[in-house]
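Tokens in:
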């Protein structure tokens, strides 16, 4: 008779428990993933788990890519060169298929946007079939009077950012929510935020608010959220009627 080892084999566990274990191993910090020099030391040990076996790697990459937010355009200065491709463009389509959350960070290069910051087929946004939430974080609003004398013109970055957000939303096939957040210096009613919110409403996406500023607590915001949800629900019911 063959006696089983006293330890339970990993693949004998239910899939839900295996996913929980992998989540502890791979998503402990849940930071936003971007092109960054620290990736080699911060992530390489965890990503080596992909190489344990074919089955282990399959389950691990699903947990890792579904459990993190991925930044669409890089923000670290080392990776802003003209020929540097964004992280999404470097990933195979089967990794992009399981990503659930993306981040668009606006502010770096406000006077001269980085050359890689443009939407095209290379990003593979259409492959992001599980992304329902797009997080938009605004670092600065150059339309503010304090930037006078330093900006190209008052509307340049506002127009650029609005267009970038619109193009990203158009390419994400199942996106339903855009979550906004910002640093304290950003005025929610300033030109940049106003343009971004307008683009989101035109695209008929739900508007949510991140934890940094705690926007969205007013009655008007709650009523707007209820109206958008009702509009989306009506559109979905008409599509299947």
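Residues out:
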């Amino acid at each position: 008779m063959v006696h089983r080892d006293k330890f339970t084999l990993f693949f004998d566990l239910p899939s839900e428990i295996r996913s929980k274990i992998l989540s502890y191993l791979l998503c402990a910090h849940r930071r936003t993933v971007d092109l960054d020099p620290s990736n080699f030391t911060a992530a390489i040990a965890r990503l080596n788990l992909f190489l344990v076996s074919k089955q282990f790697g399959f389950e691990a990459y699903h947990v890792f890519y579904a459990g993190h937010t991925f930044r669409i355009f890089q923000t670290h200065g080392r990776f802003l060169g003209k020929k540097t491709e964004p992280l999404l463009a470097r990933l195979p389509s089967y990794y992009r298929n399981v990503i659930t959350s993306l981040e668009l960070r606006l502010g770096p290069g406000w006077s001269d946007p980085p050359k890689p910051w443009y939407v095209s087929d290379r990003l593979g946004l259409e492959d992001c079939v599980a992304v329902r939430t797009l997080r938009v974080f605004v670092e600065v609003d150059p339309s503010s009077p304090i930037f006078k004398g330093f900006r190209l013109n008052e509307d340049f970055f506002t127009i650029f950012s609005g267009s970038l957000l619109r193009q990203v939303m158009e390419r994400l096939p199942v996106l339903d929510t855009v979550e906004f957040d910002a640093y304290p210096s950003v005025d929610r009613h300033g030109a940049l935020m106003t343009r971004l919110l307008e683009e989101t409403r035109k695209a008929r996406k739900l508007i949510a608010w991140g934890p940094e500023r705690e926007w969205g607590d007013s009655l008007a915001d709650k009523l707007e959220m209820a109206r958008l949800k009702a509009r989306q629900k009506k559109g979905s019911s008409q599509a299947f009627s």
